Request: fold
Amino acid sequence: MIILIVRRLLIGLLTLWAASVLVYVGTELLPGDSATVILGQEKTPEAVAALRAKLGLDKPAPVRYFNWLTGLLQGEMGNSLVSGKPVADVISGWVKNTFILAGFTALIAVPLSLFLGMLSAAFPNSLLDRSISITSLMVVSVPEFLTASILVLLIAVNLQWLPATSHLTANATAAATFKALIMPMATLTIASLAYMTRMTRAAILDVLRSPYVEMAVLKGVPRGRIILLHALPNALGPIVNVVALVLGYLVSGVVVVEAVFAYPGMGRLLLDSVGLRDFPMVQALAVLFCGFYIAINLLADILAMLTNPKIGEEG
Amino acid sequence: MKAKRPPLSKWGKAGIAILSIHLAIAIIGPFFAPTDPGEILTFIAFAQPGEEGTLLGTDYLGRDLLSRLLYGAGLTIALAAVTTAVGFVLGVVVGFYAAEAGGRIDTLIFRVVDVVISFPPILLALVIIVGLGSSIPVLIVTVGIIQAPRVARIARAVAMDIGTQEFVEAARARGEKIWSILIREIWPNSLLPLAAEFGLRLAYAVLLLAALSFLGLGIQPPLADWGALVRENMAGLYYGGWSIIIPALSIASLVVGINLFVDSLLAQANRDVSREMLQ
Reply:
């Protein structure tokens, strides 16, 4: 068991390392480098060469990668080319905003979808189940920017309850933060709710088909009791997996949603930095995004190992 | 031996109908377009549907939205189909081979597959596209790379499942070569689950490509797929928003069509669309 977990951790680290290489190579392929971006208009060949030497850009690529990686491991991510401030200082506020957005979405979507999924599974093929199934299938098929646009049209343009974009400053009041959060959160919640409800339903139905549930049915145990006491505990592993998949979805989902609402989070900062060719920022943010995603999957796999006694026996 | 084809549900049939309409629009749509997609029809941007002699209104430059939508259909569907085909072929070949080869080769291949799957798809696309610049070949390769390991995982599971059956054991006992077993024994018997997987991946590709175009990382002007139409008209959100809602709904209905069809295929195999779209 412990060997399995350690092995999974090692694979996670390997993946993270692969991510760092890929991110570095990706940004290295961009035309120009930090020196030409910083100098901008004043880039005489001599000035560029001098700055390259100062920043260590004249060294071969593997050396530069190694320097960047060791810096990253010590929390030293270099300076933003646009603002000149350390990357870590610039991104921390934006990272926090993304965490608030994703966190609140998960807090609402996870319990609600577990409830809807169980309700759906409790009455399979009923009108309720079929409507939940088909509605969630439709929602899963809708791009986030459509949900977001409809919300903006309804709430901001027609009803004028909220501003269309989320202007949020670093030291906004709690009320302002909440207002800015509502629509991005609603967009992400609608999508994750649909995904999770369907998966929860499938996981519970899967367990309901097992022999011990059949036994309970034959014994005459009431249906609600079967679902809560027999099916749910055994569906825990799959449900943990479902939650992890949705958290992983949120990592990608925030990029689009933050772009639609101009919400000041990591995703928007990443897209802006790409546009501004701010290499240190792009590198740091891309590695952070991959890191979160990898960590979520890692945690889910380990939890799945812990909740599944079968895996323990084999290990 | 041929597996009996299970009947499609009525939702599945509705999915096929929606898909057929989209395909028809993609193929013959441009012939019915009232104007050239690049032609600036009027100086009135974001005209409402029905205004300025248009059916669906105008875009941010005063171009006919219907014409741009009809011309964009082919690009949207063809690009999704090609990227999916690339990822699918690669994934099936790798997954099948790993399943039948087994042992070290299988372990090694799937270490790599696991690593690639561990990247958040949109970030992987962003990093590759930022590095290489966006073009149709880059998009095909990028989405192909994202799809292939996910297809490989399913293909391997399917091949392993079929591989335990007697007729495959018999082929192995006869000393058939690995590719011969894969092509003659396993492939013909895995068509149904793989068809469902292809559909799933197609829906996924449509959504991913739309998101990339929306973020400005996908199809570049003057070409425009439906995702790009949404992006370029975002300013129109305050002028009624039809120029955003119509292309976005076109994307959504395409994916709904695919997913309805796939869902009714998957329901028989105890699999679910939502789970596999997230993986």
In short: The mean pLDDT of chain A is 81. The first helix of chain A runs from residue 2 to 28. Chain A touches chain B through 59 residues (CB under 8 Å).
